[in-house]
Design brief:
Layout lengths: L1 E2 L2 E2 L2 H38 L20 H28 L3
Antiparallel strand pairs: 1-2
């Protein structure tokens, strides 16, 4: 199989497909298990007349793991690493007018 001039062996294509299928199955199983655990905990809590456990925080309510100073330092390191890695490519493309 060839796309954009890159040849991909059928065995590697099959491995990629199985990896993606396994990843999707694991994500589905994880989501189903998480839902079942929280649903069961709520059912047990209501049966005993207590409050159900609080639901895990959603994507918009995440707490910050690191402070602003560390995040700024990490962002600077990341940007300098990207510049060091891809700087030559960017200069080459700029020289060619791309």
């Amino acid at each position: 199989m060839s796309a954009l001039g890159v040849t991909i062996k059928p065995t590697n294509l099959l491995r990629g497909f199985y990896f993606a299928a396994g990843l999707a199955a694991a994500a589905g199983a994880c989501t189903a298990t998480r839902g079942a655990l929280w649903g069961g905990a709520t059912t047990v809590a209501r049966a005993h007349g207590t409050l159900p456990p609080p639901a895990p925080k959603g994507a918009g309510q995440e707490e910050r793991l690191f402070g602003a100073e560390f995040r700024a330092w990490a962002a600077g390191k990341w940007n300098s690493a990207v510049d060091a890695t891809l700087g030559g490519l960017a200069k080459f493309l700029a020289d060619r007018g791309l």
